Amino acid sequence: MATTAHTSRSRRAGRRSPLASGALLLIGLLATGGAYTAFTAGSSAGAASETQVTKLTEEGEKLFAANCASCHGLEAQGTEDGPTLIGVGAAAVDFQVGTGRMPMAANGPQAEQKPVQFTEEQIAALAAWVATLGPGPAIPDDRYLAGDGDLAAGAELFRINCAMCHNVAGAGGALTEGKFAPGLMGVSSKHIYEAMITGPQNMPVFNDANITPEDKSAIITYLKYLENNPSPGGYELGSLGPVSEGLFVWIFALGGIVAITVWLTAKSN
Predict the structure, then answer these.
(1) Are 86 and 133 in contact (CB under 8 A)?
(2) Total-model pTM
(3) Which CATH superfamily, name and number, covers 43-138?
C-alpha cells in the first residue's frame, strides 16, 4: 500500500499542469506566426523591390530608344555615329547625361557640358537599363562623396595624376586638336568620381587598382577645398598660371609705363 501511494504521488508530481501546456502551446503558435510574418514580409519587400527595378529598366529602355538609339543603336551596340554602350556601366550614363554632355547637340572634338535635358528619375532609368547590358562601373557610394577625406593626400594625388591637364588649381586647360580639359570648380562630387572611374572624353580611367575609393574621396576633398576657399594671394587671374599673369603684365603694367612716359613727355614739351 505504501509503495502504491508513493507511486501515485510521484505521477501526480510529474504530471504537467493544464495551464503550463496551454502556455507552451501559445508560445509555439506565437513563434511560428512571427517567423511566418517575417518571412512573408521579407519576400514581399524583395518582390516589390524587384518590380521597381523592372519598371525602372523598362522606362530606361523606352527613353533610350527615343533619345539615344539614333546614334548608339537600338541595342546600344554602337553605330558609325556613336560608340557601343555595352559594358560602360551606370556611372558613365549618369555622368554623360547628368552633365548635359549627352545627347550631343552636334558632332565636335568632344562633348561639351550644357543644360541637362532629363530629370533625375529619367537619368536613373537610363543608367539602370544600360547597366543591364554588361558589367561596368556603378554609381559611386555616397560615403566617398562627402568631402571628408585626407586633404593633404588628395592635393598630392591630384598634382601627380590630374594637374597636367586640369591645372593644379582645377581650372582646366587646352589639349590638342580642339580638345580641352574642363575646369573642375562647381562640378558635383558624384560627377568627379564618375569621371575618374569611366574616363570620359580624353581622360584616362582611374580604376580602384590605380586610385582606391578612399584616395578618390581625398581628391574630391581637395577640389572642394579649392572651391570653397579663395586664393590667399589675392585675385588669381583665372588660375591659369604664367599665361594670364604674363598677359596682365603686358597689358596693364607695360601699358601703364608707356602711358606715364607719354604723359611725362607731353608735360615737358
Answers:
(1) yes
(2) 0.72
(3) Cytochrome c-like domain (1.10.760.10)
